[in-house]
Amino acid sequence: MKPNAILINTARGGLVDEAALADALRHGSIGGAGFDVLTVEPPNDSNPLLRNDIPNFILTPHIAWASHEARQRVIDEVVLNIQAFLCGQARNAVTPVTV
After folding, report:
1. What are 26-39's pLDDT values in tens digits?
2. Known catalytic residue: 62?
3. Which residues contact 58 (CB under 8 A, 6 or more apart)?
4. Which pTM value belongs to this model?
């Protein structure tokens, strides 16, 4: 990555080597990082990204799903899935791929 790049992880913990990222942030190999999830949740004191010497790292609470809108969408989707099932319709179906 370029030295001015900012890495954002709002997906899953464990996708990024946290020790390597901490080292890259300290040495200016990357401009910054913002995460809302870490490999171990809740995080413990041994996480290398939570040291005081990394000012270009931001960690936010992993609660994006908790907004009213997000919870309502989950409820709406569940209702649609149940209705489709009761009507014998496929919804959100994944077609298997053979290799």
Report:
1. 999 999 999 999 99
2. yes
3. 32, 33, 34, 35
4. 0.64
